[in-house]
């Protein structure tokens, strides 16, 4: 059985052969290679950024790039899910 957060190429001898690697990728159980996180999504489901097992669409008020979710700072906003950048608030 393969472990989530790890990938196991053909011929692997352990269910934890290779850590997924970083927040930019995720590894559901049974994959032979790390999967890149979709733009506007972030990786989740692991005990660390190196062992993520799923991806989730970025929520309102956040930007998501490289598998990381960042809250928009004061003076910026994200008014749709799946944003990769926070936008500057209009004057006033």
Kindly describe this structure.
This protein is an all-beta fold and 92 residues long. It contains no helices and 10 strands. It is 0% helix and 30% strand. It is rod-shaped and about 60 Å long.
Termini, distance in Å? 57 Å
Mean pLDDT: 94
Summarize the amount of helix as a percent range. under 10%
Biggest pleated sheet: 2 strands, antiparallel
Looking across the biggest beta sheet, what order are the strands in?
1-2
Q: Class by helix and strand content?
A: mainly beta
Overall outline: rod-shaped
Structure summary, number of beta strands: 10
SSE run:
EEEEEEEEEE
Low-confidence spans: none
Question: What's this model, at a glance?
Answer:
The chain has strands spanning 6-7, 18-19, 25-26, 35-36, 41-44, 54-57, 62-65, 68-71, 76-77, 87-88. By secondary structure, the chain is mainly β.
What does the secondary structure layout of this molecule look like, with pairings?
Layout (H helix, E strand, L loop, with lengths): L5 E2 L10 E2 L5 E2 L8 E2 L4 E4 L9 E4 L4 E4 L2 E4 L4 E2 L9 E2 L4
Antiparallel strand pairs: 1-2, 3-4, 5-6, 7-8, 9-10
List keywords for this structure.
mainly beta, two-stranded antiparallel sheet, 10 strands, 0% helix
């Amino acid at each position: 059985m393969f472990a989530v957060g790890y990938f196991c190429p053909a011929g692997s001898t352990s269910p934890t052969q290779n850590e997924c690697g970083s927040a930019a990728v995720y590894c559901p159980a049974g994959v032979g290679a790390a999967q890149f996180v979709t733009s506007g999504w972030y990786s989740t489901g692991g005990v660390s950024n190196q062992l993520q097992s799923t991806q989730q669409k970025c929520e309102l008020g956040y930007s998501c790039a490289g598998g990381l979710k960042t809250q928009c700072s004061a003076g910026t906003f994200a008014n749709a899910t799946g944003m990769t950048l926070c936008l500057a608030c209009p004057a006033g």
